[in-house]
Predict the 3D structure of the following.
Amino acid sequence: MDRRKFLAGVPGAVVASREVLSGELETVREPSSLLADPPGPPVSSPIELLGVQLYTLRQEMASAPERTLAAIAEIGYREVELAGLYGMTPREMRSKLDDVGLRAVSSHHGVGDIRGAWARTLEGAQELGQSLIVAPSIPGSERTAEGLRRIADDFNHAGQTAAEAGLRFGYHNHDWEFGPLPDGTVPMDLLLEKTSPDLVDWQMDIFWIVDGGESPARYLDGTSGRVTSVHVKDRTPGGEMVDVGDGVIDFSLLLASAERHGMRHAFVEHDRPADAIDSVRRSFQHLTRPAAGSGAQSTGPGRP
């Protein structure tokens, strides 16, 4: 399959191969393996704990962190991924999370932190009780083959130091990593090749990999064990980011596959929600709804 034509043409009319839950490969015609048709079906998360990336609620966290964290916990989330501390120290943030029964298992830190105050960053993550630190992006000036090789070296070093501190280190993709460079190199493939699987995990953003014209299922098959966390956000056929269940990505299939390949955390996210609390609530409800025909009642992740 031509990676750049994955989502070309009429939505749902492409030919793709999908990994079915039995582990076999099946070639299907409409809808695409990664798209469910019609939009908005019930989906069911295969993992016990769902998290939320607090970037989704950045405005709410900046103005009312205690109330925001309490609302997240009330929805049923038990894990969060941090995107800054909103003026708090790691100890202060952990205290607020503890008060409502939430745990920060991951956080995003830029390449500048990796190359600069990395030891202090790791200490903060330890104080928060995290298991993972993720680099969320790469500077535009370094998105060349040569620049990415340098970044890969930095990532390997960061991963080694993180491991010595009892943490895992990973990288989070957007869409540009799947567009070939002038020499034909695919940035994501280069990063995966030049970083050690023992030191650098991949936080797969499912929306962005689909938006970049690639197949999350294909990459999960080829990188088993490296995708230890994912970002869960949905996409319309036209490319709009929407709450989970309002788009056409088949998360019931992808999350089950990701878990089999070693995923430990799934963070709901929406970059530009109209109402952030409502957005993460609606996504949670879709992801914890029992699968069609199961007859089971969902009690929320992490609950008996």
